[in-house]
Write a structure and sequence with these properties.
With 191 residues, the protein is mainly α. The chain has a single domain, classed as Cobalamin adenosyltransferase-like (Hypothetical Protein Ta1238, Chain: A). The protein is built from 6 helices and 2 strands; from the N terminus they run ββαααααα. A two-stranded antiparallel sheet has the order 1-2. Helix 1 packs antiparallel against helix 2. The radius of gyration is 20 Å and the shape is elongated. The model has no long low-confidence stretch (mean pLDDT 88). Homotrimer.
Length: 191
């Protein structure tokens, strides 16, 4: 990996460029820094989520996800480098299967609401989707392995599922969207 920062206020970005891990410089508004920034933002939101009460197994999973996102950010910062392993995607697939198995089937769309932890998990989910879009955009201009895209896609799904787990932690439930169309259909069916 490239040089590690020994000071933070380097002033080298004052010209609108940023340094990558391979010591090249690119514009701060190019696709690679966008993807790196979105992954970094996601990791920061996960840190905030981890401030909330949650089951220990969920906490341990999210801490590992933070480490994997740091690997992903490192991979994005060095073109052609691989840090995120395929096993990380498999871990998310296994977690999805595990947590989904204990949840009831969805009857309707749910709102990003409920407990503070669940709402924060939804924020993380939406940032993960944005990070995924940024990685897809980068992949249209430069070679990017599939694992980063797959990881972010699975992670956003997992965060949705975990929001449901977190809403049930103290006997709560999902916060369902009140669809006017479905309400009219139910009313029509009873008439």
């Amino acid at each position: 990996m490239g040089n590690r920062l020994t000071q933070i206020a380097t002033r080298t970005g004052d010209d609108g460029s940023t340094g990558l891990g391979d010591n090249t410089r690119v514009s701060k508004d190019s696709p690679r820094p966008h993807a790196m920034g979105d992954v970094d933002e996601l990791n920061s939101h996960l840190g905030l989520l981890l401030c909330e009460p949650m089951p220990q197994d969920v906490r341990e999973l999210l801490i590992d996800v933070q480490h994997q996102l740091f690997n992903l950010g490192g991979e994005l910062s060095i073109p052609g480098f691989e840090l995120l392993k395929d096993e990380a995607v498999l871990q998310l697939d296994e977690a999805l299967a595990h947590y989904n198995a204990a949840l009831p089937r969805l009857q309707e769309f749910i709102l990003p609401a409920g407990t503070r932890a669940a709402a924060q998990a939804h924020v993380c989910r939406t940032v993960a989707r944005r990070a995924e879009r940024a990685v897809v955009a980068l992949g249209k201009q430069e070679a990017v392995r599939e694992a980063p895209r797959h990881y972010l896609n699975r992670l956003s799904d997992l965060l949705f599922v975990l929001s449901r787990v977190l809403n049930r932690m103290d006997g709560g439930d999902d916060v369902y969207w009140k669809s006017e169309r479905l309400a009219r259909g139910a009313q029509d069916a009873t008439e």
